[in-house]
Amino acid sequence: MALDLIHKEKNIDLITGLKTRTQTGRPNWDKIFEELKESGYGPVTVFYCGSPVLAR
Fold first, then answer.
1. Taking the CB of residue 6, how many other CB atoms lie within 10 A of it?
2. Which of 23, 32, 47, 56 is packed most tightly, with the most Cβ within 10 A?
3. 15, 3 in Cβ contact below 8 A?
């Protein structure tokens, strides 16, 4: 909550020092890919390099 207020006031993320706000947690990939599909963006390819546990 405090990080949100500081970001709103100073337009800076205290974790990274960047203007873009850090979003914690895991992305909802099903939702993201569904939105891409519905937008008619075209073919999407994903490459992942890392732990198989994190891949799901």
1. 13
2. 32
3. yes
Q: 0.85 cut: is pTM over it?
A: no
Inter-residue contact 33 to 44 (CB < 8 Å) = yes
Residue at 19: amino acid letter: K
What's the CA angle centered on 33, arms 18 and 29, to 5 degrees?
60
Cβ pair 16, 22 in contact under 8 A: yes
Report d(CA 46, CA 49) in Å as an integer.
Answer: 10
DSSP 50: S
Note the Cα 39 to chain centre separation in Å: 18
Would you state the pLDDT for residue 6?
86
